[in-house]
Amino acid sequence: MIRQWDSTGLDVQKFDEIFEQFKLSPAMIIDVRMNSGGESLLADAVAERFADQVRLFLYSRRRNGPDHDDLTDLSREYIQPRGPWPFHRPVAVLCGRTCASSTEHFINAMHELPHVTSIGDTTAGAKGNPAPFYFQDGTTYYIPRFIYYTVDMTVVEWNGICPDILVKSTEADFYAKIDPVLDFAIHWANENKAPVTPESTPAVEPDTIPPAVVSTFPENGCQNVDPGIKEIRIVFNEMMYTGGYSWMKDPQNPWMFPEVTADPYYTDDFTHVLPVRLAPEQTYILWMNRGDFLSFRDIADNPLIPYQLIFKTMSDSSGL
Are the beta carbons of 320 and 227 closer than 8 angstroms? Predict the structure, then answer.
């Protein structure tokens, strides 16, 4: 049972040491029913030990203004293999009404793995990452800062995450020291356990290769760019983490950075857009990642090697 995602009690290293003991298990049961949340990075690290490949598991939008609909574009989150070996045999995740916040993050990720089955009841539906606000009388209230969606675009908040297999339990069951969910999961694991062979515990080669820029618009080095274009577009060679970016000014020529007209965004997992307003007969220099600012990263968290984009505009616009 994992009661809380708290690295002071269970950090990643300690989990991996415990996890090693189950390398040859024919099936596994993970009970997070009493877990109301904690550190999402720790929850992700645990889920990643079960990942068979990179898989999309969550969408999110962040509040970025005072109005009801002031939200960013969709960001995507992925689960990917971590550690020297993955557990690919049958896994039961026990969930219920107490599961909230980072535990729903964990269940979301595990739900997308083909060898994982969730058993129990629907989760709490409390994953908005709320921020506290205060009235003058001392009353505190909380407002969600994010909207999270499952892969099928179901909002997690209020709805929760439904289990693959619904097994109800009551307060009376626990007073009687009966656990219908765990009993069902043990039976399920015995029925679905897989043979243990060296092939069923393959080694994982970590992705340590940084992403690369495939193309830019305008083309890097171009000397006759139309000053009427409204955006700079970058295409990468692999799926990127769409929740961050680092556009930087050239330290020797900071005035050569273009006027930015809106927040940068990703149109998909590979393509990033910087909305701009350009002037005629102007040389522009931009950096992607530089110094300590390395937020252009792939989904394996490898940062883009600092990339410099230089171009010059023409004297007039073609009307683009």
Answer: no
Confidence of residue 319 (pLDDT cuts 50, 70, 90): low
Domain assignment of residue 297, yes or no:
yes
Domain with 51 in it = 12-200
Residue 309: band (very low, low, confident or very high) from pLDDT cuts 50, 70, 90: very high
Q: In this prediction, what percent of the chain has a pLDDT beyond 70?
A: 97
pLDDT band of 47, cuts 50, 70, 90: very high
Is 274 contained in some domain?
A: yes
Query: Span 17-32, mean pLDDT?
Result: 94
- Global pTM reads 0.72
Shared domain check, 184 and 49: yes
Confirm whether 3 is domain-assigned. Answer: no
Longest dimension (CA), the chain: 83
Residue 6 counted as domain residue:
no
